[in-house]
Amino acid sequence: MKARRGYDRARWALTIAALLLVAFPFYWMINTSLKPASEIFLSPPTFVSAHWSLDAYATVLTKRPVGRYFVNSLVVALGTTLISVTLAALAAYGFTRFFPRGATPFIVFLLFTKMLPETLLIVPYFELMSDLGLLNTYAALILAYSSFALPFAVWMLIGFFRSIPRDIDEAAMIDGASYLQAFCRVILPLARPGLVAVALFTFLIAWNSYLWALVLTTDSSMYVLSVGVANMVGEYRVQWNELMAAAVIAALPVMVLYSLLERHLVDAITSGAVKG
Amino acid sequence: MAASPEQPAHATAGRGTRRGATPWTRRRRVGYAFVAPVFLFLCAVVVFPLLHAFWTSLHRVRGLASTFVGAQNYVRVLTDDAFWHSLAVSLEFTGTCVALHMTIGLGLALLLDQLRFARTALRIAFLTPWMVAPAIGATIWLWMLEPQFGVVNYLLQAAGVIAAPLAWLGVPSLAFASVVAVDVWRGTPFVMLLMLAGLQTIPREQYEAAAIDGASAGQRFRYVTLPNLRYLLVVASTLDVINTIRHYDTIGVMTAGGPAGATEVLPVLLFNTAFRGNRFGEAAAIGVLLMLIVLVFAIFHIRFTRADLENAR
Amino acid sequence: MRTFARHIAMLVTTVGGCIGAVMAAAQQPIVLQWQTANLTESQYEPVWKATIAEFEAANPGIKVEPVLVARKDHWTKFVAAAQAKKAPCIVSVDLATAAYNGYLLPLDKYWQAEPAEFRRAWNPDLLSASKWQGQLYGLPIWGGIYAEIYNRDMVAKAGLDERKPPKTWDEYLAWAKKLTAGDHWATTVLGGKTDTTTRVLLMWIWSNGGEAFNADMTEATFAKNPKSLEAIKFYLGLSTKQNVAAPAPTTTNYLEQTNLYAQEKIASMRNAYWAIAKVDGDNPAIKGKSFVAPGPANIDNAPTLAVVTASSIASSCPNPDAAWKFIRFDAGKKWAVQRAKVANWMPMRNDLADEPEIKADPLLLQFVRIGQNARSYPLPSPIWAEIAANDIVDAVQRALLAPDKTDEIFRDLDARLTKKLRGV
Q1: A14 band by pLDDT with thresholds 50, 70 and 90
Q2: What is the DSSP string of A83-132?
Q3: Does a structural domain hold residue B261?
Q4: Is C361:C341 a contact under the CB 8 Å cutoff?
Q5: Going by C-beta distance under 8 Å and a sequence separation of 6 or more, which residues neighbour residue C67?
Q6: Domain containing B50: what range?
């Protein structure tokens, strides 16, 4: 029993140590965002300050339209999630039910599409969007981000749908439902954990992406958060506390969302991708 | 119409006749309808730019004017030392990062799996680096690693580990180690998540059986845990390699490939060639080469581990 | 009868529709996009907002839309847009590279159409810096003149006389040794991965009578010209041999350098006037503590470096006339003075000496005086953007990390650059 407890204690010690390493940058980010400008460069640096205030946040929200950026990010991320989940669910269903042996080559094809580096795709993609008149629209970003998210989404959902037995669809269709109705009314609800996982993952990709939004939006009222935050890095001046405040604002929504839905994420991966 | 070899036998029995004269074409057509949206979407949004990139790689691009030069860009790139150096750095970086992601990720998952207390909170806490945009995470680390005003040097000096502030990003060996460390911080949570999920599907009975047989903890790990996780390990490592080898944000923000090219991985070389050197044709060639490298890796990796993407174990 | 009525109705609607469309198009304001890396600098913001407001008030029907982008991404965004022929109408970019790639519109016809009194405000050599292959591609709007900026408190504490700043290299080294102590250094050596590294290196080379390139930019002479090599060794040696420079030079860019100066960790910096506005903003306690002198040199009349920022029109702009109107407006005296006062950006016009706000600023006058003998930057090569921020910086970083190999490193650089320059 003593060995057990010693073992447990060692476990805890390691966990706490790892946690400190992982969480320290966030603590530092929040600490810096609360400091007044005059304290940023103090050496030795202050870990807790009597002068902590929300001034940087106030400045960032009023001086820069961070609220507007936030809304843009939200629209783009939600749009991406909607499109990706829909397309991926349709495709995964199609493959697992109609072309089971085609699933693997398709996954390989998807992986292949991910292999080309982003930088290369920017200019032709910009031309395409420009020709379609979609510059400075949510649509351009949603389309781009959906293409990034699809490979993993389809992979996971294929795994997930495979674990739902065919008899269920067949039972639904015996009652006269069409394929689509069986899909929507019966299969999708069963697949909810997988869908939630894919949705979370896609939301994250869309929320954090930077390079494409940078190139595809020129109107500052269309900027997303990641671009807005980056604009605060001027070569001539970086207000670290304001930059960190903006970074905290950018990171919060994803963290809140994940905390609420984390349970689904692990469940989904458990039953989906793992079993193959 | 003969049954298509794609359709497994049991799906054909009975149902077709029950719905009254349903030929394979009809079922097939419905299947296509489900699958088509993704194909069309990807063709428009990915395949077109991809082909365009390949086409560009065959041209010498001077701003808005381009001339067809065939394979000349590839020759130029392959005979340039900078490319081979960059490739070496990329392989070193990717190899080190993925190895660390997998080992630390698995280790963390094992740690967290057994904990009862505050399980969800801990899981979220460990996932946080993954939830922050890579560019933002890199910026935070950039600030922390600043030689004169950064907190890392301060803490290390206060703890007596180093005597004078170190230039974390200013010396080649340290710069490489720093970007690897930051990438490990960024990329491990995702692997940890996958491993955690995997650990939870391992049936308890297998562990109990092994314990009854007198297996030690190490043996249990080797003979129960690892084989069960094999499929997931392959999935995770493949995705990780593909993601890491094309990752730009972290190194782009922290060192832009410096100092003296010590951290110039292929995506950074590509970016610099395209947007600093304005040599889009050559940049496209580098991109295509990078893609081929990844493709070759993926093929060998999956063959080598003989992991079936269709069935686990 | 009914068909006739129908035809009339159709005719009326068609004509009405056309007129409506024409009127709508006529009423639609022309929208000019304006992109320059400095729009995100907080000190410049009030000035450009006022500029746009006044311009739009004076020109109904033209709207100016600023494109805000972080400095490091400015070129990327511009190139992506230019390649798709949708670049912002008004831009400030690396002129030679952009012109060479066909991204900019030649401005000669607009320039020639301006009255002589307007054109007189720009010196011909200044204009030639904005020309490419004989054609004018940009109107110089503002710039920066580099000099050595010192912190008078730290200088006094070291027992040195601020009225007698160092003129030669030896004097500079003597000062530097006195200005370096326990927790502060005399200066920094810039070795970070931006083109400011190249700017300072060039100045040191010129201060020894050396040259980095031959006259028509087809050959690099960093190592080939012995005076250049000597200068490089001395300058980099400040960090590697003499230890009078702050550590970590390979990650020191403008930002780190000004941070160090603002926090009084270094006593001097080679920088432009705008740096003083920056450090004053970072650390108000340092306001008024800076004085200026020309950089030390081993020859008489060593030139300093003047960075020129010009406003250009993108070749894909559908409304170049309107764009020129704005550029001309922005280049006016009023805004030049504002920029100088608020952001410490050097005006490019030569007719401002009598403006009261200019006369009242002694530091500005000093910079202007030092700038009488300046060479313009960037250098006129279509691959300058790459050379300055990649190849030369690489060589500097290598030399900082392995000082014994400096000769070899810069000989390599010469060979590599010459090859690139000839292959253009």
Answers
A1: confident
A2: HHHHHHHHHHHHHHHH-GGGHHHHHHHHHHHHHS-HHHHHHHHHHHHHHT
A3: yes
A4: yes
A5: A218, A219, A220, C33, C34, C35, C39, C77, C88
A6: 9-57
The predicted-structure confidence for C313-327, as pLDDT tens digits, reads as follows: 999 999 999 999 999
**Could you tell me the CA-to-CA distances from A142 to A129, A205, A231, C205 in Å, in that order?**
12, 11, 21, 51
What's the per-residue H, E or C state across C353-384? Answer: CCCHHHHCCHHHHHHHHHCCCEEEECCCCCCH
The beta-carbon neighbor of B148 closest among C260, C393, C398 is: C260
pLDDT tens for residues A112-162? 777 777 777 777 787 778 778 887 889 888 988 888 888 888 888 887 788
Q: Which residues of A touch C86 (CB under 8 A)?
A: 126, 130, 135
Collapsed DSSP state (helix, strand, coil) of residue B224: helix
Q: Is C340 within 8 Å of C357 (Cβ atoms)?
A: yes
Q: Are residues C295 and C198 in the same domain?
A: yes
Q: How distant is the Cα of C79 from the closest Cα of chain B, in angstroms?
A: 7
C-alpha distance from A84 to closest chain C C-alpha (Å): 26
- Together in a domain, A34 and A85: no
User: Kind and range of the H or E element at A127?
Assistant: helix A118-131
The two tokens of residue C161 are 């006389």
Alpha-carbon separation of residue A267 from A92, B122, B194 (angstroms): 19, 16, 11
Residues C155 and C295 grouped into a single domain:
yes
Mean pLDDT of all residues in B208-230:
83
Residue A150 amino acid letter: L
Both tokens of A90, joined, read: 């349709």
Give yes or no: residues C299 and C315 share one domain. no
**pLDDT for residue B47 is more than 70:** yes
C236-245 burial by CB neighbour count: b if 16+ within 10 A, else e? bbbbbeeebb
Q: Which of A218, A223, A224, A240 best probes binding to C when mutated, by most C CB atoms within 10 angstroms?
A: A218
Taking a contact as any Cβ pair under 8 Å apart, which residues of chain C between 211 and 230 contact chain A? none
Q: Identify whether A234 is part of a domain.
A: yes
Nearest-angstrom CA–CA distance, B165 and B161: 10
Beta strands in C92-138 (DSSP E): 131-132, 135-136
Beta-sheet pairing, B65-68 with B59-62: antiparallel
Least confident piece of the model among A228-242, B189-203, C5-19, C333-347: C5-19
Range of the domain at C166: 145-306+379-422
Q: In terms of domains, do C264 and C397 share one? A: yes
ipTM summary value = 0.81
Alpha carbons C66 and C50: distance in angstroms, whole number: 12
CB atoms within 10 A of CB A222: 21
Asked if C92 contacts C37 with a C-beta cutoff of 8 angstroms, the reply is: yes
Indicate the number of domains in chain A.
Answer: 2
Whether B247 and B107 map to the same domain: the answer is: yes
